[in-house]
Design goal:
The protein starts with 5 loop residues before the first strand and ends with a strand. The protein contains nine helices and nine strands. It is α/β, with parallel strands linked by helices. The protein is globular, with a radius of gyration of 18 Å. The protein has a domain of 183 residues: Vaccinia Virus protein VP39 (Rossmann fold, 3-Layer(aba) Sandwich), CATH 3.40.50.
Length: 263
């Protein structure tokens, strides 16, 4: 990518590792997180029940089932056989199918809204192909509601150095590095969206309501509660409260863009 995104290395990427589940492989725990995630208010504001909605890269399909419970018309697509196997007992109506977000199995102008939550950052070649596909299947003025991991200030001050040290240490020991994901600045990803034919409507923080949290929980193991499922311990809750009062952007786990198909 010809940009400044922070390139994160980790385990080797396969179709199933790309489908690694954001909250583990428990369907009920994944679904529970929807009631904590702040973007639920964004969905309620922008989505209407007469829209055809696709969750592209839906993982265990938590937003598909959450939205359907609320009366919306939603479907999901994911490439991971492992995720699809877990979903199958819950998806008796066949709302979720196998498919590649970079080559979606739908005709042009098929959906009024596309949701993409923590997906496009996992393509080493960059997110442009997935964004272009989302635009292709959207109707005129259709909505793209997309979240990506930000290169927030706390990461720049701490995690950057740790990951750089790990990478150097792995190479020194003769190990190999494999791409995991990109961390984008807000400005940088906005530029990518505009380049791919979208008009930005709004940009908000994508986080979980306390006692749960994305940014601190993912980056700092010692702040995780023993309860798991993105719940912070006492120290984590205190730190989150302090940082949030200064600025939510310091440690936010996601940035969510609401944009419309341009033309």
């Amino acid at each position: 990518m010809k940009n400044l995104a922070m390139k994160i290395y980790g385990a080797a990427s396969t179709s199933d590792s790309l489908g690694q589940f954001w909250a583990g492989d428990d369907f009920e725990q994944n679904l529970e997180l929807c009631e904590y995630e702040t973007v639920r208010h964004v969905f309620a504001h922008y989505l209407t029940r007469d829209m055809r909605i696709l969750d592209a890269g839906c993982g265990l399909g938590r937003w598909v089932f959450y939205l359907r419970k609320k009366g919306y018309t939603a479907w999901g697509v994911d490439l991971s056989d492992q995720a699809l196997a877990i979903i199958r007992p819950f998806d008796t109506e066949g709302y979720i199918i196998k498919g590649d977000v970079c080559d979606l199995p739908f005709a042009n102008n098929s959906f009024d809204a596309v949701i993409s939550m923590g997906v496009v950052e996992h393509f080493e070649q960059g997110p442009e192909k997935a964004l272009t596909e989302a635009r292709r299947i959207l109707t005129d003025q259709g909505l793209l509601l997309i979240s990506i991991p930000p290169d927030n200030l706390l990461r720049k001050l701490t995690i950057h150095r740790l990951y750089s040290w790990r990478a150097r240490n792995t190479i020194r020991k003769g190990g190999a590095l494999s791409f995991a994901e990109y961390w984008f600045s807000e400005k940088e990803f906005r530029g990518l969206l505009e380049k791919c034919g979208f008009i930005i409507d709004s940009i908000v923080t994508d986080e979980l309501d306390p006692p749960k949290n994305i940014g601190l929980y993912v980056d700092f193991n010692f702040l995780q509660s023993k309860k798991g499922n993105f719940e912070l311990n006492r120290a984590g809750l205190i730190l989150e409260r302090i940082l949030r009062r200064i600025s939510p952007a310091i440690c936010r786990g996601g940035v969510h863009f609401v944009c419309r198909k341009n033309g």
